[in-house]
Amino acid sequence: MKLLSLSYENFRNLAQVTLEPSAHTTVAVGENGQGKTNLLEGVYFLATLKALRASKLLELVRFGQTFSRVSGRFSLGGAEREIAVEIRNGVRTAFVDGKRAQSLESYFGGVSVVAFTPDDLSVVKGSPEGRRTFLDRAVFNRFPAFLDESREYQRALKSRNRLLKDRAPFAHLSAWDATVAKVGARLWVRRRALLGELATGVVEAFSRIGRTEAPAQLLYAPERLAGVDFATASEEQLMHALAAGLDARLQRDWERGFTSVGPHVDDVELKLGEHSARAYASQGQSRALVLAWKVAEIENLQRTSGFLPLLLLDDVSSELDPERNAFLMQYLANSGAQVLLTTTDAQLVRSAAGADTRWYKVKTGLVEAVDG
Amino acid sequence: MTPDALNRLVAQLAKLPGIGEKTAQRLAFHVLRAPAEYARGLSAALLDVVDHVSLCPKCFSLCDKAHPQCGFCSDTRRDDKLLCVVEGIADELALERTREFKGRYHVLHGVLSPLEGVGPDQLRIRELLTRLQDTDVEEVILATNPDVEGEATALYLTRLLKPMGIKVTRLAQGIPMGGDLEFADQATLARALSARRDI
Ligand SMILES: Nc1ncnc2c1ncn2[C@@H]1O[C@H](COP(=O)(O)OP(=O)(O)OP(=O)(O)O)[C@@H](O)[C@H]1O
Ligand SMILES: [Mg+2]
Ligand SMILES: [Zn+2]
Fold this sequence. Notes:
Chain A is α/β, with parallel strands linked by helices.
């Protein structure tokens, strides 16, 4: 998969921008607040239909406008295809070769991106919610159907919470318990599958980056899951276990008006050897851990899909110490992946650049090609 | 300034779902330019629909007011042992187009949706239960959509129907993702119907 060209129309502060990325590295350089992240956010939105940082779609539309569009030409398995996403009056619509996409599969059909932002670097020490989001992005990259599945789960969960608050009759509530259990078990299975695939890659990548003897580990086990072994249970067993969990906590949930068990309350535990990284890892170790996760994720996507994802790195270098930045730049240069990098300081990323690197300068939402 | 009569027509048309102000205007101009018989025919058809069409008291499909029951309920060739429960009329018509289903229908007129304030009392569920007391129905096919609301509704009904000793099945999942029954193509629907599963 290669991204051949990109265009933006009224996306954030980008009124009208076109880019022709290199097959390898493309660097957007600019001062703070000029639109570098917006460029990457547009690609992320195009490739995932999800916002990278916005909480509302409307935030993506340029101030004073009602319509926004990002499109890209991709080379996919020898064929060239154009995918596009539009936001019109707050509604998002996806297109493949000019026609409305019929299904998410037809839309994603082989396009995959992995984004890496400074926010990701704080995931080890941050909140469980941050870790869930981080994990779920990776799950979605691996299993695009997860987008719909997690939306369904959110909807089922919200419905159940509403019934709890409204003190709905038990017969009605229990139909939603069963629905939450069914879609929730699916999320568990997806997360488990991804983490299983990443486990050895993370250890391996961490030992390459870290100056840390202890091996890195990702652990995930649902809270309060009684009666089954999470690692080996079937989806159906997990569904029954979640249903039982919902049942066991019904009284409590009823009193508080929200659901206290399920994939939405779980956490990923990151460990260095025996110790929790959240509690004990140094700043540098936590960042190395995130970097290792990302590298493992990229390599796993390559292994499972047969091609490298498009990599989006938003000003990550300025947050890494020189040694870890050097590792990352070297990794990018050797990986052969197509990479879009942003930076305020071209020097920081120069070692990832080669003869075919394209350089762009970003200023007040305008983007122009420049010499490196 | 456009005449009041035209403005009134545009305003009425614009209340239709999926019709914006501009389209409403285009439609109104079209009516205006067409021979007067067209407008007369249209208004007569509109009145007829409200005067003569109602919901069947048995299955809640559309029904001619002059008849005691709808066409599905009164058709003697249909199988009384099979009852298919759908969310709405559009789903019923989609299933009917497959020409595979020869049983009876029951239209819920919605699905359970706490987020939209729809509970069991807002649907034709009580009527379904009443209808199923001392009937010949042996199998109820739950053909609600495969989204979470459709699933929850099917589960809710299953728990009510099973204790009555009725076999309950659910359409197999062959429906395209993000797609509703109404839009599913006929081949997919026919497959979903024949591969229905017990729940
Ligand atoms: N919907 C929008 N319409 C117009 N401008 C917007 C919109 N959303 C954000 N902006 C503007 O985009 C600019 C920020 O762009 P961006 O986040 O890409 O900056 P950046 O170049 O990545 O900066 P930094 O180096 O600080 O991260 C701000 O000036 C902001 O006001
Ligand atoms: Mg930025
Ligand atoms: Zn009828």
